[in-house]
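Bug #77: duplicate submission created two jobs. Keeping one. Sequence:
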Amino acid sequence: MFERDKIPSQPEETPAEEPLKLVSIEDPMGPAAEAYRTLRTNLFYAFVDDPPRVIVITSPGPKEGKSLTCANLGVVLAQAGRRTLIVDCDLRLPSMHHLFGLRNFQGVVDLLAGGYEMRELWHEPVPGLRVLTSGPLPPNPAETLGSRRFAELLAKAREEFDYVLLDAPPVGAVSDPVILATQGDGVLIVLDAQGTRKGSLRQSLRSLEAVRANVLGTVVNNVDTSKKNYATYQLYTAG
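Kept job's structure:
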C-alpha cells in the first residue's frame, strides 16, 4: 500500500509559497498571540500528572481555524523551549505548507512509503519547531493514517519531541480525525465563535466519545471583540 512507486509523481521542484501571517510570529505582543500563549499555559499546567504530548487538533467543520490554531500553538510551544513537531495529517486538504511558506514536494506520505528518515523530510520554519508537511496526497487517507507505519512514526516522534501536534481534517467530514484520536493523547476541538453550530459540535463530540478519545477541551476563535463579555484573549480550553 505504501510502495514508493505508487505515490503520485510531482514536479522535481515545487516552489515555496508565500507564507500567511501567523500572529505568534508577526505580532508576538498582540492580544491574539497572547491568547495562544494562554492556551500553551493551560496545556502545561492543566494536566500536570499526565500531560498530553501527542495532540490531535481538529474542528467540527471546515474553515473554523484548526490549522491556524495548530500552527500558532506549535510556534509558541517552540518559543517556550519545547521541542515541537507539527505533522500535517490532513491528507485531503493540507495547509501547513501554505501557513509556513514551505515546499510540499515530500512529506508524511513519502516517509510512510519508506526509504527516508523523518529528519530528512521535516522543515524548521522557527527555531525548535519542525513541520512535516503532507507530501503527495494518497488515494486512501484513512487507511494511511490508521496504518502500522503511521503508528511507528508517532512512536519515534514521541522519543524525539516534547509535543507532537497532528493537524487533522474536520470531524464532521471524514473518519480520519477519529482514527487519529485513538492514537493521540488528547484532542483539541477548534470552534468558530461566529460560525460553528451547536449541533455540529455535539455530533463531533459523540464521534470522538465513541472511540473513547480524550477530549482536552475547546479552542474558540473569531470572537466578537465588541461584546462586553470579551476577555483579554480569544482562545481558551475547557475540559
